[in-house]
Amino acid sequence: MRMDNDMAELIQHEYDHLDGILATMRAIGNKSFVMKKHRCLNYRPV
Known about the structure:
Order of helices and strands: HH
Structural class: mainly alpha
Number of domains: 1
Distance between the termini: 41 Å
Number of strands: 0
Strand content: under 5%
Number of helices: 2
Shape: extended
Largest sheet: none
Oligomer: single chain
């Protein structure tokens, strides 16, 4: 099975949990932990 982008990252992240690997163990540098901005199309402020 081949996946791309966010879904691939999510599946790898969850699979790593099963093997006891934390995200911090895979970090290459400080930029590994920069948050991505996501745009929610259904978001309406209250």
